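thread: overnight batch results

M.L. [08:02]
morning all. the overnight job finished for the chain we discussed friday. pasting input first so we're all looking at the same thing
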Amino acid sequence: MSKVAVPVTPEEAAGPLAIGRTYRFAKTISESDIYQFAGITGDFHPNHVDEQYMATTRYGRRIAHGALLVGFMSTVSGMICLEIGIDRPAVTYGLDRIRYIKPVFIGDTITTLYEIAQRDDRLGEIRSTVTVSNQDGAVVAVAIHILKLV
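M.L. [08:03]
and the structure it wrote out:
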């Protein structure tokens, strides 16, 4: 089976998919977010749902799931495809080098900054740096997102 290349059009390359273009998504993390995510994934680790347990740790309180932050990274890529008019399918081809730098607590407002960094126009592949920061500007997570036009 051979790969089918879906190139980036000149209009896309100069417009919404231009290198250096940035997109943002912000959300305050609620207790409800934590429990709903735990319910969907089955991840009821005490780090996320047991306040007394976490009071005995260096964090002192519950922390958000790292995978929840990854979900917000995906939210931004979806926003690009749906909200700015890319009129053909695109999928997350992968997230590389995901790192959780600092904990995210209930009540934190996180901002996900998505910046288009590289493109392979021949293959229709876009790589972006993703940085998640809290309300104090501290970086809490990073990754490289790969978007593939299909």
